[in-house]
């Protein structure tokens, strides 16, 4: 069977032609290798029933519908590639129904809690700058940790971060005054040559940054389970919209390809408003 060969060919296409990130490539590789290892059949001839059996085995092992849906998405892309390359005459995933996943709203922190976190970073200039940039820009954690010193652009006194995001798409995101002050303080006290946040011969890892945020949350008397780089990104978007920012602007800052992805933050605001009305409106407290 040529399963591994086909998987490697697909991953190369995703990297070279579509410019997928390393994290995306690794996720596809894990999903596809798991499918190939669990099915003693060639990907050239497996059927829709084989894919359904695979998904059922994932369900039986306790994996969530969201995780199963993501793995099916990986298989869809892979078999579409095999079909396009005429390795297969069909795409067996076409008739496979995706696991039903409930829409969950992104978690976010209050502005006060974010401020509490920032105040606790005063002694750690690197962590302070990372958190300031993250909250000021809403960057993805992979974009933040891999920033180079040259990614900081200054034009007419305004500071911007040059970001190469998903699919190698580029964007400029402005920095606010607090992030700029943290940047100057950090650069004045550190000899930075290439990576903005170096660690060893490369840059700090997403795992280490996530761990640092958890430690900072404990130090700030906040629940570490509710603090992560992704939650800070969600907080940026939610707070921007709450303060009147245009949805299209937030979409551009976050690097979302589809406006629908950004619109989920409007649902957060709607839920918050409902909560406030239920709590404070006099009529909401009357029983029937």
Write a brief structural summary.
The chain has about 290 residues and is mainly alpha-helical. The protein has helices at about 5-15, 20-40, 50-60, 65-85, 110-120, 125-135, 140-145, 175-190, 205-220, 230-240, 245-255, 260-280; strands at about 150-155, 160-165, 170-175, 200, 200-205. The chain has a three-stranded antiparallel beta sheet with strand order 1-2-3, with no helix packed on it. Strands 4-5 form a two-stranded antiparallel sheet.
Write up what this structure looks like:
It is a single chain. The chain is elongated, with a radius of gyration of 23 Å. It contains twelve helices and five strands. It has a three-stranded antiparallel beta sheet with strand order 1-2-3, with no helix packed on it. A two-stranded antiparallel sheet has the order 4-5. With 288 residues, it is mainly alpha-helical. The relative contact order is 0.09. It has two domains: 93 residues, DNA polymerase, domain 1, CATH 1.10.150; 167 residues, Intergrase catalytic core (hpI Integrase, Chain A, Orthogonal Bundle). Helix content is 56%, strand content 7%. It starts with a helix and ends in an 8-residue tail after the last helix. α6 packs antiparallel against α8 and α10 packs across α12.
Give the helix/strand layout:
Blueprint: H1 3-16, H2 22-38, H3 48-60, H4 65-84, H5 111-119, H6 125-137, H7 141-145, E1 152-155, E2 158-164, E3 170-174, H8 177-188, E4 198-199, E5 202-203, H9 206-219, H10 229-242, H11 247-254, H12 259-280
Antiparallel strand pairs: 1-2, 2-3, 4-5
Strand content: 5-15%
For this structure, the CATH topology of the largest domain is hpI Integrase, Chain A
Q: Strand order of the main beta sheet, please?
A: 1-2-3
Largest sheet: 3 strands, antiparallel
Architecture of the largest domain, according to CATH?
A: Orthogonal Bundle
Distance between the termini: 68 Å
What is the arithmetic mean of pLDDT? 84
How many beta-strand elements?
A: 5
Number of domains: 2
Count helical runs: 12
In helices, the fraction of residues equals 55-70%
Could you tell me the radius of gyration in angstroms? 23 Å
Which class do the helix and strand fractions yield? mainly alpha
